[in-house]
């Protein structure tokens, strides 16, 4: 992509979009998707705070640094300072790898942008349509930056959620904190120097990835605070010669920053995960569950099992690393297509308890003999699984994983997942208010209801 193809003033154009967008400009389908994603975020953050093995260490570490505060962390009865609340909410929402995904943009928008929007909305006590509009511009900016980064960010070893999520979070927080377009552009300019997120965590199943959206949300609060105080940020932070696109991607698509902006909403393509694993394993899980259903049981011990995934999926959840065949921890398992397929074939379901089976001999035996191949005709998140015994072969091909908007993403599915994750501990008014955010009476009152802890005793 040459410099002449880069849209002039793309950062400034996005800043105008952030400040000028009204509720009427947000399509009904986008409003529905945002409400679903917000409810899903609350559920996965609540569960992440309780069940992720890394969460206790995160809390302990941060309490060594700060005390007090007045900003809500989901499922935590004690408030935290604003930047740290955003940090914790982002970490919790991503720790189970159960948060929303936008496949076209290659990232998880909600875990990064919602914590910043919630913190800013609680601080300003936003009312009326403002929380929803802030979510809309945050998601849209995030998804557009992710699409513009393209898969070249992964090729360079960067996690797009951490990068694009920071910019989207800055947009949403800037909107709620009343920055004008110049102020939003300044905040994005400052945020550009805070972008990070290495994919090296894949080498040993490290927990770095769980920090990425939280750090993005925290840095968005810092960037907007600096801009609010008058600190000058870099111009053309996204499209400039040393800007975010050139710095973090081998194959950027800068035209996607602004083409159709305000009329074509990329956020509408955001899906809700049915399984706590990398989205690029979900096609394999769906296919395995269907094959198991057709068989009426797990495949026979002598059955030949073949799993095909896309080249993009192979880069993240396939390949020849021994940890993909024999995961050592939950992060390894979350990024192993053969592990996820094996669990689905053996158990008929995939949930957080599945990671307790990482060392199970039967599971290890099946993952070791699954024939993993790359099929370039498959979509990124698609898969094909076949099980062949002496008598017959069962083959299932999945083009789009379940939970995508075009696969029947209903409110019933979102609510069921939310209730299971929160164990019915949160007030009923939370789900009811989130379902229709167009006339929020008090963001602060709504958000502070989220402080109810989720425990094993809730039912």
Strand sequence of the main sheet, in spatial order? 6-5-7-8
Q: What is the C-alpha radius of gyration, as a whole number of Å?
A: 21 Å
Mean pLDDT reading? 95
The helix-and-strand class reads alpha+beta
Strand content: 5-15%
Largest sheet: 4 strands, mixed
Low-confidence stretches: 1-6
Distance between the termini: 54 Å
Find the count of extended strands (DSSP E, 2+ residues): 8
Helical content stands at: 40-55%
Structure in a nutshell:
This protein is of the alpha+beta class and 459 residues long. The protein has helices at 10-20, 28-51, 55-63, 82-95, 109-124, 130-149, 152-155, 160-176, 181-191, 208-228, 244-248, 282-295, 311-317, 322-325, 330-334, 337-347, 361-369, 411-422, 428-435, 443-448; strands at 71-73, 76-80, 101-102, 270-271, 304-309, 371-374, 383-388, 393-398.
Topology:
Blueprint (H helix, E strand, L loop, with lengths): L9 H11 L7 H24 L3 H9 L7 E3 L2 E5 L1 H14 L5 E2 L6 H16 L5 H20 L2 H4 L4 H17 L4 H11 L16 H21 L15 H5 L21 E2 L10 H14 L8 E6 L1 H7 L4 H4 L4 H5 L2 H11 L13 H9 L1 E4 L8 E6 L4 E6 L12 H12 L5 H8 L7 H6 L11
Parallel strand pairs: 5-6
Antiparallel strand pairs: 1-2, 3-4, 5-7, 7-8
Helix pairs in contact: 1-9, 2-4, 2-6, 2-18, 2-19, 3-4, 4-5, 4-10, 5-6, 5-8, 5-10, 6-8, 8-9, 8-10, 9-10, 12-16, 16-17
